[in-house]
Amino acid sequence: MNQQAYKTVRAYGFDEFIINKSRFIGHAKPVASQEEALAFLQELRQRYKDASHNCFAYVIGQNAGIQRYSDDGEPSGTAGLPIIEVVKAQGVVDVCVVVTRYFGGILLGAAGLVRAYTQGAAVALKAAEVVTMHSTHRYLFDVDYPLLGRLEHWLEGQPARVEQKDFGACVTFELSVREADAPAFLEGLRQVSLGRIEPLLAEESYQGWAGEA
User: Fold this and answer.
1) pLDDT digits (tens, 9 = 90+) for 170-209
2) Where does the chain hold its CATH 3.30.70.240 domain(s)?
3) Among 200, 19, 197, residue whose Cα is nearest residue 108
4) Confidence band (pLDDT; 50, 70, 90) for 2?
5) Is the pLDDT assigned to residue 211 strictly greater than 80?
6) Angstrom distances, CA of residue 149 to CA of 24, 68, 145, 165
7) pLDDT, tens digit, for every residue of 78-95?
8) Which residues of the chain does CATH 3.30.230.30 include?
9) Does residue 28 sit in helix, strand or coil?
């Protein structure tokens, strides 16, 4: 696969806060197309149809080739633009961010609105968890029980993620490794097992890895 890593969000997330009696709810969701982004926006417009505003921004494509935003009735430049600036500043793509506002009766002014929608986008991305998507290899292999303790101790220091372990006549491991780490990982696996473990490459895909955002 060997394609460039990119940042997106792991899953739908939301958070909210209140500023001068106005309630703001920030939402973020991974999307792969404009159609998915607009469907997410429509879903939230229905869910929060009594809200004063549902302002949004989305960035699609690993090269951020598609970018759209809307103030949804707020003064020009005070909502959609701050939202997309937060997304761009964090380098996140394939994401739609919506900030819902219930007006509390106190005007915030242009500067106050910019701060509020900036905060709304930030809490949304945090709730959805920004992750780095890497080209990832998933391996399957069997381990004899006498070797299990040694292998598990070695795995604790490896850049690998154990997805599943099945216990039978031997222990079957399913784990994921970033493509860039795979050669060194496989060599280490060969050494720690004295060549007894024969991993099978089961899948190549993009997966999110936390801790690098």
Assistant:
1) 999 999 999 999 999 999 999 999 999 999 999 998 888 8
2) 134-209
3) 19
4) low
5) no
6) 50, 52, 8, 13
7) 999 999 999 999 999 999
8) 6-128
9) strand
CA dihedral over 74, 71, 85, 25, signed as positive or negative:
positive
- Strands, E, within the chain: which ranges? 6-9, 13-19, 22-30, 53-60, 66-70, 95-102, 130-143, 160-167, 171-178, 200-209
Q: How is residue 180 written in tokens?
A: 């860039």
Kindly give the interhelix angle for 80-89 and 109-128, rounded to the nearest 10 degrees. 40
Q: Which of 26, 93, 24, 89 is nearest to 56 (CA)?
A: 26
State pTM to two decimals: 0.80
What's 6-128's CATH class?
Answer: alpha beta
Q: Which residues pair with 22 in a beta bridge?
A: 19
CA–CA separation, 200 vs 142, rounded Å? 10
Structural contact between residues 94 and 59, judged by C-beta atoms closer than 8 angstroms: yes
For domain 134-209, the CATH class is alpha beta
Angle at 32 between CA 8 and CA 14, to 5 degrees: 55
Structural tokens at position 8:
């997106």
